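Q: I'm building a small set of examples for a reading group on sequence design. Run inverse folding on the following structure and report the sequence directly after it, with nothing in between.
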């Protein structure tokens, strides 16, 4: 088989969730498949060291301008040039016309659930807004043209099927994401201290991966954290990642607590390899999103032996099982109470940590890669039979 995999953004410095899933897929395919040939199509960028070629995996850097042009013109041409038998697109979109069968990962359809006006008025960056408008426009056609559509949870599978009224149940399936093996409790004191100094971490803190996407519930978390400090004598800081300080000030004014900024640590962008040492040092990991299709950070925190607070909505109960403290994300009071409960009840917190370690082991990138390999075989065989 000759398999083409779209990994457009893999070489950019600041990789996000979908990029990490594609990267782990490719790396694990390299380990389990030495027989078939792969072409990984990426846009040129700075972080080339993140992925290496092997005997049967070739990296093809494609120029082609802005990503819709890259995806709709440069990518199909390359697929034809290199004689691929199938194209696997990994990031919620795909070319409308290809010469080979198409497998598309649709991580979520949150952008479909919002109107164009809602997208344009959202607090997301201009890049995110354009991406969501582009996906909203293109995905209905991509769905029709894909031989197989894969999503990342059974919740999202049902959501996609219901939204698009899919009658062909064989077209759509769910394959779980995994958690990387470097996510584990860090015991090296020197490494913990290095990360603490690098990101200016406090001695006691809660960890929250908030961003400007409304689904992350940043305003709700800030309100809950503000109430937590008012109601208790605990003095834990709130550590957040690469968040715009001006946007943060706006939210703090909205919740009528601008002084809360003095209790928040903004780390800036954090390398994925540094995250385990941050998880390990936090007291509670906050993941009370309003809507998620999977929730990899929950599993990362669990793998690092950290208690997790997450939501009772969308995919989060499916992925967390009984290994997290479940709350209503629309209720800051429940988030506040969750923090108080976890800090004051050590036995309960330890039980969640123990369950989390066990739960996270159910999600493996290797298993995910094996499922995709079988899917490639089935897709290509089906095409040959039709011919």
């Amino acid at each position: 088989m000759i398999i083409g995999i779209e990994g457009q953004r893999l070489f950019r410095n600041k990789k996000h969730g979908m990029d990490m899933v594609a990267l782990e897929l490719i790396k694990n395919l390299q380990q389990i498949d030495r027989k078939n040939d792969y072409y990984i199509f990426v846009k040129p960028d700075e972080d080339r060291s993140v992925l290496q070629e092997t005997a049967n995996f070739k990296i093809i850097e494609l120029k082609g301008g802005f990503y819709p042009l890259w995806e709709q013109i440069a990518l199909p041409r390359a697929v034809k040039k290199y004689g691929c038998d199938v194209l696997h697109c990994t990031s919620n979109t795909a070319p409308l016309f290809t010469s080979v069968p198409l497998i598309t990962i649709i991580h979520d359809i949150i952008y479909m659930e919002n109107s164009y006006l809602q997208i344009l008025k959202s607090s997301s960056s201009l890049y995110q807004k354009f991406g969501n408008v582009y996906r909203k426009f293109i995905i209905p056609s991509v769905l029709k043209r894909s031989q197989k559509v894969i999503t990342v949870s059974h919740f999202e599978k049902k959501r996609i099927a219901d939204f698009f009224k899919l009658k062909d149940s064989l077209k759509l399936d769910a394959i779980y994401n995994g958690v990387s093996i470097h996510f584990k409790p860090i015991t090296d004191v020197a490494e913990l201290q290095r990360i603490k100094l690098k990101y200016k971490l406090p001695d006691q803190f809660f960890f929250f991966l908030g961003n400007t996407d409304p689904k992350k519930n940043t305003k709700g978390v800030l309100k809950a954290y503000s109430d937590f400090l008012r109601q208790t004598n605990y003095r834990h800081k709130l550590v957040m990642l690469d968040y715009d300080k001006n946007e943060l000030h706006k939210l703090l004014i909205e919740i009528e607590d601008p002084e809360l900024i003095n209790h928040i640590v903004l780390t800036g962008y954090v390398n994925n390899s540094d995250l385990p040492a941050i998880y390990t040092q936090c007291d509670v990991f906050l993941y009370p999103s309003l809507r998620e299709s999977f929730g990899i950070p929950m599993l990362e925190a669990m793998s690092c032996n950290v208690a997790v607070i997450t939501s009772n909505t969308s995919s989060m109960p499916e992925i967390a099982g009984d290994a997290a403290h479940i709350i209503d994300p629309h209720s800051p009071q429940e988030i506040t109470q969750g923090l108080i409960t976890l800090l004051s009840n050590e036995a309960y917190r330890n039980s969640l940590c123990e369950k989390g370690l066990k739960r996270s082991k159910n999600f493996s990138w290797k298993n995910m890669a094996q499922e995709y390999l079988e899917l490639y075989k089935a897709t290509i065989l089906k095409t040959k039979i039709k011919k």
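The chain has a mean pLDDT of 92.
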